[in-house]
Design a protein that fits this description.
heterodimer, A: about 900 residues, alpha+beta, 4 domains, six-stranded mixed beta barrel, B: about 230 residues, alpha/beta, Rossmann fold, six-stranded mixed sheet, four-stranded antiparallel sheet, globular
């Protein structure tokens, strides 16, 4: 019989003969491939979901061109700057008959291309099919006073008919049947591109295609366009082209504006999606690495049990390369068999998981991705298999057949007979010597898992403890407020009384704490050292260069410290005879002022005196210290510290000398429309003194003041104008408390309202406590799940390594077990012997892990203490200890079961096995 | 006085649906200090009989008595203690624990019994077997004959009452086999141990005081040996 024996024949023969072992290896390989494919799928899904969320919020269009009939995009389209162009046909402008016109929306229909680009998403119902049917974006529905309307209801609007470029002035009532509610687009676009054009000419209400404009009117066209990805030209060139056509005034560059605002709070949900999926991708990557370790372990075990076969092949002339090829081919065949199963499992598993996570998480099907997954999976398996294969191929025939490596190890370690009578201990000890590699790997993994677990749980607790939130339900901070020494109320931006009324009008607000702020000078006959130092936070009274020179020379004296030029010119400009100490004046709600009571160090807060403007509260550093330091470049600098640190050396430190009862002359400086400086002076008494470092947290949360070191005077809102002489002054921060518990719907409503009310204020920051808490809870949950998953993974891998290693040893030692039983070892003693081996494998890693955690924690704690910054991460070992116990119990039970399996056969069967 | 005996001892194996009776209603007894050889052709059940007598395997039916104690009532723990204290085993394939040195292998039953070894006795055995210079080696560094000597020393370490040997010379060349057999006999005479030896080699069997011949699991001809 003629038969060719090839590498494949040998490999397939091996596969057939060791089905059970290979089935286990296949499980490992499938896991590795599932996770490696999962990494790719999650990464792609992160991109897809991010894009999908963007499209759902803003549409697929890159640019919007208003009045597109007059100013067409034909030229850039002809020049291949644009891929697709579609048009919205606007028939009119609709608003609630009893409502404000600015709350209305244009109404029209989209052609096929525009509908694709606008990416309208129906939340309920269907798109209109006749001219008297309408579908409206949810936000527009509430603006049109129709928030309570349901599908099928008739809506009546005042409609201004379109006349080509504008709308008619006379509204006509028109009724539509509501057939669909769409997700918000216009309000989202409005948040990134605030524009009158958007409100006027971007439809948020849609009727059936080809509906006609009312008699006498003419459609207004708004173009949706997608910029070509394959354009030969840069976007800038394209923009220049539009500029030449005088189109840019009518154009909104949606995509660029969006990316320009990507770090603002409005884009947070998309960021979260990406973060979550990136975390999952990272986890999948770690799991891939872990699965590869599993493959290495499985192949190592497999090859160890086949050392004799390898030795035999080597003895009959197989080269190292051939050995690698035979066993490598096995790995390749296995990975080919496993690839389709793994990729399908991974793909549908990822889809299922994404489905559970919500409809914003998507994964688009792409055939090439499946091939890439297969290639990556096979590469992972081959790389993982290469290590044990290379090691196995180094075995010489004699090594394999006579266990030469054991003899070598014995010589190297100078092993001598032990006169011990504890067999389990002796076997465990000897095992450590002969399986040092496994021991080291297990110890390393356990150490890493324990350290990871301890620091992970420490971090989770730390994150819980330090989770940021705001005191009020909503906070609007106008970050554009820079308090300059010369006030200009006409240029100051913030919220007006009308805005506050609008906030109250939402009907959900219980209390608003708003505050006003301006700069004010405290006039002094001469500047005390403390006052001199305090000017450092306003208009510095002293020459910084002179101060630095004196500090460096170690010969500092306030008497010789010259005034700065800025200070002198400011003093001259204001026509001051005395010396101004620049401070800020905050006008607060009386409730907020009363929150300062617990922080008062001198005097008392008398509300009636504060409200009348007779008294103010002074907030100032208890002590100010100046120290000198140097940078790495050798440059010196002065550090001004409002809360002097006991460990720091100061060349000057001065205590606050202002007391309750002190009379102050305050000067409010402003400039009129001609640029002339105006002063408004008055006297006031300090009613109470509060030190900056001792501000009650309730006050900080509600005042918009974070305890700056600048000298601060606090007055009541009612008394503010008596210090400035100005009646209309904008509110710079607003804290809002709701009159009912907040939920997702209310939060959405309030944020939309507040965005509208505060629209037009640049650099505005709106904080929603509900959103922050939801985000924080979600982040903490994700963090906890992520860390727990990683920790469990680490422990599972360690457990699996211990288990595999001991299981392989038990399998290999079947005959040894038989021998031991034959010479009188009972099943209990055998159990104990292997448990002892397990303990010796386990305890090193556990011991080193906790010791290392303690050591690193101690070093970080001491380092923090040395540098005066407390290391605030709590010490967390209990969770890790519990996981260690769990791992020990699970592995121990499994081990016991495996030994029982071996000892349930007769001794002779044990011995005969090999 | 009989140290070991069995009555109607039967062992059946199942090979698919076929029942193979390896030992068929064997009743035999062994006197203290006796050297008995069990012979027979391959597959006659001689090794199985030895395994049953030494409690390495459980019989399908029948009883085994050690000094009149019925072993069928013993649990795993009691049998383990019996094996480590009263029985010694020498296998054809030596069966040494590969991770332990020669000396540690010899000490195995003593370690299991958690007793201090009789150093003088051990030294005597080791000298008799001529393995003084092989004690610190791992089994893989020893020749077949040397490994078998270690196995004999291990079997004798706890001063057993009965030494079971299953084809102890089967894996050895003629010279080594003869040496091992002489040693077994010599040690048996010196220590007064009962030696029950399984062999298919008639020259080996002839060294015994009594020869039991087995065929198809039954004793067919109890014979006196040449000694």
């Amino acid at each position: 019989m003629k038969r060719n024996i090839s590498v494949n024949t040998l490999a397939i023969g091996n596969l057939k003969n060791r089905k059970k072992q290979y089935a286990l290896m296949c499980v490992g390989i499938i896991l590795a491939m599932v996770f490696s494919s999962g990494t790719l799928f999650f990464l792609i899904s992160a991109q897809d979901s991010y894009e999908e969320q963007y499209f759902r919020s803003y549409g697929k269009e890159d640019i919007l061109l208003f009045n597109a009939e007059e100013l067409t995009l034909d030229t850039p389209a002809a020049q291949r700057y644009l891929d697709e162009i579609g048009y919205a046909h606007i028939l009119g402008f609709a608003y609630a008959p009893e409502g404000q016109r600015q709350d209305g929306t244009s109404i029209g229909w989209l052609d096929e291309k525009a509908a694709q680009l606008a990416y309208l998403q129906l939340e309920e119902g269907k798109m209109p099919e006749s001219a008297d049917e309408i579908a409206i974006e949810r936000d527009a529905l509430s603006r049109l006073d129709c928030q309570n309307k349901k599908l099928g209801d008739t809506l009546t609007f005042a409609v201004l008919t379109a006349n080509g470029t504008e709308y008619s002035e006379t509204p006509q009532n028109r009724s539509y049947t509501l057939v669909g509610i769409l997700n918000n687009k216009r309000s989202h676009l409005g948040s990134i591109v605030p524009s009158e054009l958007l409100t006027q000419f971007l439809p948020a209400a849609f009727t059936a295609a080809n509906a006609q404009v009312a008699a006498g009117g003419k459609e207004i066209l708004t173009a949706y366009a997608a910029v070509s990805n394959t354009a030969d030209h840069e976007f800038g060139d394209f923009y220049e082209e539009l500029r030449r056509q005088d189109v840019t005034d009518h154009l909104l560059d949606v995509r660029s504006n969006y990316y320009g605002r990507i770090d603002s709070s409005w884009g947070a949900s998309e960021e979260d999606t990406t973060d979550t999926l990136s975390l999952f991708a990272l986890l999948a990557l770690v799991l891939t690495a872990v699965s590869c370790l599993g493959i290495i372990n499985a192949f190592s075990t497999n090859l160890r049990s086949r050392r004799q076969q390898i030795g035999l092949l080597r003895a009959v002339g197989a080269t190292r390369r051939q050995i690698i090829r035979v066993f490598g081919r096995e790995a390749f065949l296995l990975s080919l068999i496993c690839a389709p199963i793994s990729i399908l499992l991974s793909y549908f598993g990822t889809k299922l998981l994404l489905g559970w996570m919500g409809d914003v998480y998507i994964l688009r099907s792409r055939i090439w991705v499946l091939f890439v997954c297969a290639a990556i999976g096979v590469a992972c398996v081959m790389l993982a298999a290469l290590l044990p294969l290379t090691s196995a191929s180094r075995v010489s025939p004699m090594q394999a057949i006579r266990q030469m490596d054991m003899m070598r190890k014995m010589r190297r370690k100078k092993i001598r007979s032990q006169k011990t009578y504890a067999l389990p201990k002796l076997l465990a000890k000897r095992d450590l010597i002969f399986h040092r590699g496994t021991q080291t790997l297990v110890s390393l993994l356990l150490t890493a898992a324990i350290c990871l677990a301890c620091f992970g749980f420490s971090y989770v607790r730390y994150a819980e403890k330090t989770a940021w939130t705001v005191g009020s339900d909503y906070a609007i901070d106008y970050l554009g407020t820079t308090i300059s020494s010369i006030n200009d109320p006409s240029q100051s931006e913030g919220m007006s009384e009308t805005d506050l009324t609008k906030i109250y009008d939402t009907g959900c607000v219980d209390q608003i704490y708003a505050d006003k702020a301006c700069s004010i000078d405290i006039m002094m006959e001469e500047l005390t050292p403390y006052a001199m130092m305090a000017t450092d936070y306003g208009v510095s009274a002293f020459s910084y260069d002179a101060l630095l020179q004196m500090a460096k020379s170690g010969d500092f004296s306030f008497d010789r410290l010259p005034f700065s030029e800025n200070y002198q010119s400011y003093r001259a400009d204001c026509g001051y005879q005395d010396y101004p100490l620049s401070a800020s004046l905050h006008a607060l709600h009386s409730d907020v002022i009363s929150m300062l009571t617990d922080g008062v160090s001198d005097g008392e807060i008398r509300p009636e005196k504060i409200q009348s403007g007779e008294q103010v509260i002074l907030i100032a550093p208890k002590e100010i210290g100046w120290s000198v330091g140097s940078t790495e470049n050798g440059d010196y600098y002065i550090s001004s510290d409002g809360l002097p640190d006991a460990a720091q050396e100061y060349f000057a430190r001065e205590k606050n000398h202002f007391h309750a009862g002190d009379k102050l002359t305050l000067s409010y400086v402003s400039c009129d429309e001609n640029g002339e400086i105006q002063k408004y002076e008055r006297e006031v008494t300090i009613g109470a003194v509060v030190y900056s470092g001792e501000l009650p947290s309730a006050y900080i949360e509600n005042s918009g003041n974070a305890g700056m070191y600048r000298m601060e005077l606090v007055t009541d809102l009612r008394a503010f104008s008596s210090f400035t002489g100005v009646d209309q002054y904008p509110y710079t921060t607003v804290k809002i408390y709701l009159n009912r518990p907040c939920d997702a719907q209310l939060d959405e409503y309030m944020r939309t309202e507040l965005e509208q009310i505060s629209a037009g204020l640049p650099n505005l920051n709106l904080f929603s406590k509900y959103l922050i808490e939801q985000d924080t809870a979600r982040s903490l949950r994700q963090l906890y799940i992520g860390i727990l998953a990683l920790v469990i993974l680490g422990f599972a891998v360690s457990g699996s390594l211990i288990n595999n290693s001991l299981s392989a040893r038990i399998r290999e030692s079947r005959r040894q077990i038989g021998t031991l039983r034959a010479v009188g070892a009972s099943a209990r003693e055998l159990n104990f012997s292997y448990i002892r081996q397990f303990l010796s494998l386990y305890c090193w890693g556990v011991g080193i892990g906790f010791a290392l955690y303690g050591l690193i924690y101690g070093v970080l704690w001491l380092d923090g203490r040395y540098h005066g910054e407390m290391f605030e991460m709590p010490f967390a070992v209990w969770e890790s200890l519990a996981l260690c116990v769990l791992l020990f119990a699970v592995t121990g039970v499994n081990l016991r079961w495996k030994i029982r399996n071996q000892t349930k056969d007769s001794i002779i069967e044990n011995i005969r096995e090999l | 006085m009989d140290i070991l005996s069995c009555k109607e001892l039967t062992k059946e194996y199942y090979s698919g649906e076929t029942v193979v009776r390896a030992v068929d209603s064997v009743s035999v007894s062994f006197a203290a200090g006796e050297f008995c050889a069990i012979t027979g052709p391959s597959g006659s059940g001689k090794s199985t009989l030895l395994h049953l007598l030494s409690s390495l395997e459980n019989p399908t039916s029948g009883k085994i008595f050690y000094q009149d104690a019925d072993l069928s009532g013993y649990n795993d723990n009691q049998l383990s203690i019996l094996r480590r204290r009263r029985f010694g085993f020498v296998f054809q394939a030596y069966n040494l624990v590969q991770e332990l040195t020669g000396y540690e292998n010899i000490l195995l039953p003593i370690m299991l019994d958690k007793k201090k070894p009789d150093e003088a006795y051990l030294e005597k055995i080791i000298r008799m077997l001529g393995i003084e210079d092989r004690l610190e080696h791992l089994p893989s560094a020893l020749s077949g004959g040397q490994q078998q000597r270690i196995a004999i020393a291990r079997a004798l370490a706890n001063k057993p009452a009965i030494l079971f040997a299953d084809e102890p010379t089967g894996n050895l060349d003629g010279k080594s086999g003869r040496e091992v057999l002489s040693l077994l006999k010599y040690v048996g005479e010196q220590t007064g141990v009962t030696l029950i030896l399984v062999t298919h080699d008639l020259h080996v069997a002839e060294q015994a005081q009594r020869i039991l011949r087995l065929e198809d699991g039954k004793i067919v001809s109890p014979e006196e040996g040449t000694q």
